[in-house]
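Please decode residue identities from the backbone states below.
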């Protein structure tokens, strides 16, 4: 089994470039299936496992996928078909549920096994089903397979009971080829929702209001392929920023949109670090031992749940006691037991982790239970004295492009052992 071996205790120094946003890429790729004409060149795609799996799914559905270079592809979905997607494939990530909205819109039918993804508590899809049903589709879940069918999709007003990124995106995909206008209220405001809206608009849909909690989508009779560049991955950037502060380093993180990183930047400053934003880069400099801070995860523009786990690893070595409250996912604290093996003093009570800062961590063998738990252990391993061996790096590979090379470029000592 592959593992990451980190010899920690070295300050990160230098420049690192982040890739395209995973959670945007996995929405834009299924959106490419909506085009019955032309092709889409998608740029700034992160070279990660989730993207590679998605490209294979598009091929399985009959789309032509031409890899132009490691970060760009040309997709022609003119001859795509609504083939079923089996559990063996669908389980590889969460975002396979976007195929339901996309195939339903383009072909009037979809049959996709229930998705997989990180094990972070219950992950219902009731809001997806509610939205697609409101657009006049018939949606059932039978024996773990989502089946959706519609003679035609018809726009309407949909109010989401919970702010869901996935439901917002799935409804946008379906509504972009529906008759009339869909008004989506209490929508997610994440930048990847805006990124998808920009792509859909370039394809010929009319999406207004993405980035606010009311999105209006006027469906088009047909959509055509269009070029698109994925926005930068703010969670990858946040992970390097957090690791820089934890190791007492100084790093410039390139290819970011600083506005998207505001909740991270504000927290790191509160903890005493220096953060300078400039155009498309951010410079982070540690300023002694970080101070404790409280965080509460919330939908955008609140503190992102996906950065909670790496941030907890940093707070674990801060001066004082921090409270980390997870409001988005019911059990996103699986990293805590592993961190405690490295010497942290964290206890979880309900949805809050009480983090008593310790002065240092000690490397040992740990296992990543999910993607961002893996990121938290990498941060801890970089901070710790001695050797940290992290198992379960297939989770990390889902969302971090060439993490070993990028960290080595910052002076870290680590290897991947197969
Ligand atoms: C997306 O998941 C991301 N995944 C997650 O990132 C991220 O943590 C999450 O959004 C929140 O930002 C992808 O984009 C592929 P939600 P998603 O629907 O869309 C509840 C990572 O580390 N809910 O916004 O599945 C749900 O239980 C991953 O990159 C319902 O109740 O999340 C949760 O409490 C992990 N019913 C809340 O809403 C529904 O139908 C937010 O979930 C849907 C969701």
């Amino acid at each position: 089994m592959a593992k990451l071996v980190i010899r920690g205790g070295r300050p990160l120094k230098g420049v690192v470039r982040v890739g395209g946003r995973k959670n945007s890429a996995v929405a834009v790729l299924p959106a490419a299936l909506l085009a019955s004409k032309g092709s889409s060149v998608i740029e700034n795609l992160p070279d990660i496992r989730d993207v590679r799996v998605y490209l294979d799914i598009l091929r399985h559905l009959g789309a032509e996928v031409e890899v132009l270079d490691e970060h760009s592809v040309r997709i022609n979905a003119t001859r795509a078909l609504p083939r079923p997607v089996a559990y063996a494939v669908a389980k590889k990530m969460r975002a396979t549920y976007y195929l339901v909205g996309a195939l339903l819109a383009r072909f009037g039918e979809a049959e996709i096994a229930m998705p997989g993804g990180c094990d972070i508590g219950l992950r219902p899809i009731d809001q997806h089903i509610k939205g697609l049903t409101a657009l006049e589709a018939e949606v059932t879940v039978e024996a773990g397979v989502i089946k959706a069918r519609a003679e035609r999709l018809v726009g309407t007003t949909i109010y989401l009971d919970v702010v869901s990124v996935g439901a917002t995106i799935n409804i946008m995909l379906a509504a972009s080829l529906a008759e009339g206008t869909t008004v989506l209220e209490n929508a997610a405001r994440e930048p990847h929702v805006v990124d998808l809206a920009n792509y859909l608009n370039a394809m010929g849909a009319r999406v207004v209001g993405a980035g606010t909690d009311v999105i209006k989508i006027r469906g088009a009779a047909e959509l055509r392929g269009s070029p698109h560049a994925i926005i930068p991955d703010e969670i990858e950037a946040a992970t390097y920023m957090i690791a820089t502060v934890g190791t007492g380093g100084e790093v410039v993180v390139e290819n970011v949109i600083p506005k998207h990183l505001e909740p991270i930047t504000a927290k790191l400053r509160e903890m005493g670090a220096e953060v300078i934003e400039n155009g498309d880069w951010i410079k982070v400099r540690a300023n002694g031992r970080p101070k404790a801070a409280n965080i509460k995860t919330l939908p955008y523009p609140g503190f992102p749940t996906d950065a909670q786990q790496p941030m907890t690893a940093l707070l674990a070595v801060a001066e004082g006691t921090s409270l980390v409250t997870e409001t988005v996912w019911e059990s996103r604290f699986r990293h805590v037991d592993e961190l405690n093996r490295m010497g942290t003093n964290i206890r979880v009570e309900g949805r809050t982790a009480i983090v008593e800062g310790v002065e240092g961590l000690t490397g040992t063998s740990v296992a990543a239970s999910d993607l961002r738990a893996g990121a938290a252990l990498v941060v801890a391993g970089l901070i710790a004295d001695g050797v940290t061996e992290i198992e379960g790096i297939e989770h990390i590979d889902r969302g971090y492009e060439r993490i070993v090379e990028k960290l080595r470029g910052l002076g870290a000592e680590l290897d991947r052992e197969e």
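Observation: Residues 128 and 167 are 4 Å apart (CA to CA).
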